[in-house]
């Protein structure tokens, strides 16, 4: 069955802002990773977990780069993004200094939608898929509309962009010795655990989706009914997350990574095949996503 192309107009065109964003901080971490803080008040006010910003890296680099928003501070008018140098565009971005301005479009995309009937939220981030998980964890912490119980799992094969430490929060169902956490989340009272194949102390030796499966396997059926998974990372990781969700019968939302040109829905260059109630359709990751139901994107996973 062929997939139809769905490129009808969307109301998003009135919610994406262009602004000259001043660099207020730019911190480098191991593995050519950077946390960039931009003064972008319009984007900061409208950003949601899972949305991203499209940045002009340098005047000599014609194409913008889409970067997930890791934190948004509406009261300060700033946003934070985490990125790793991959190619000349992000290398140029890494050279931008405090006080310089960057042209920014954002926030773009439909983000994650937690459901109050499933308050046990399992947040799974791999590599540069970590930022949306931090953003979502922070928003859940601030939301008193439901008794949210987030657990954040992060995987990386290069050093994490923070100094990991043993967690002070007990997580029943975790394998023995898996105690490394992201300090910021621990300070927020949100449990987190780290995974890697690089042999880092306190981390689970394996893929982040393996650790997710181990934890889910420790829960009884009634508790599983309260779990919803949210995942962001490279495509193989997302397919594995979808397979884990199917195996345990839990809901799962995934944030896709795709190459983008315009990032505002005009070119349809980031379109992916998604199952809809009326059959397969081509959806634009930038504005129809980047977040989709895992079963719609990976119907055969597992």
How would you characterize this protein structure?
The chain is 21% helix and 33% strand. The protein is of the alpha/beta class and 302 residues long. The chain has 2 domains: 17-108, Elongation Factor Tu (Ef-tu), domain 3 (Beta Barrel), CATH 2.40.30; 120-297, 3-Layer(aba) Sandwich (Rossmann fold). It has a 7-stranded mixed beta sheet with strand order 13-12-9-8-14-15-18, sandwiched between helices. Strands 2-3-6-5-4-7 form a 6-stranded antiparallel beta barrel. A 3-stranded mixed beta sheet has the order 1-17-16. Helix 3 links the parallel strand 8 and strand 9. Helix 5 packs parallel to helix 7. The chain is globular.
Put the structure in a nutshell.
With 302 residues, this protein is of the alpha/beta class.
The rough form would be described as: globular
Number of helices: 8
* Strand order within the widest beta sheet: 13-12-9-8-14-15-18
Alpha-beta classification: alpha/beta
Q: Averaged pLDDT, please?
A: 92
CATH superfamily descriptor of the largest domain:
Nucleotide-binding domain of ferredoxin-NADP reductase (FNR) module
User: Any guess at the CATH architecture of the largest domain?
Assistant: 3-Layer(aba) Sandwich
From the N-terminal CA to the C-terminal CA, the straight-line distance is 22 Å
Q: Roughly how much helix do the residues carry, as a percent range?
A: 10-25%
User: What's the level 1 CATH class of the largest domain?
Assistant: Alpha Beta
CATH topology of the largest domain: Rossmann fold
**Portion in beta strands:** 25-35%
Calculate Rg over CA atoms: 19 Å
Q: Report the biggest beta sheet as strand number plus sense, adding barrel if it closes.
A: 7 strands, mixed
Number of strands: 18
Please indicate the count of domains: 2
Low-pLDDT ranges: 4-12
> SSE string, helix = H, strand = E?
EEEHEEEHEEHEEEHEEHHEHEEEEH
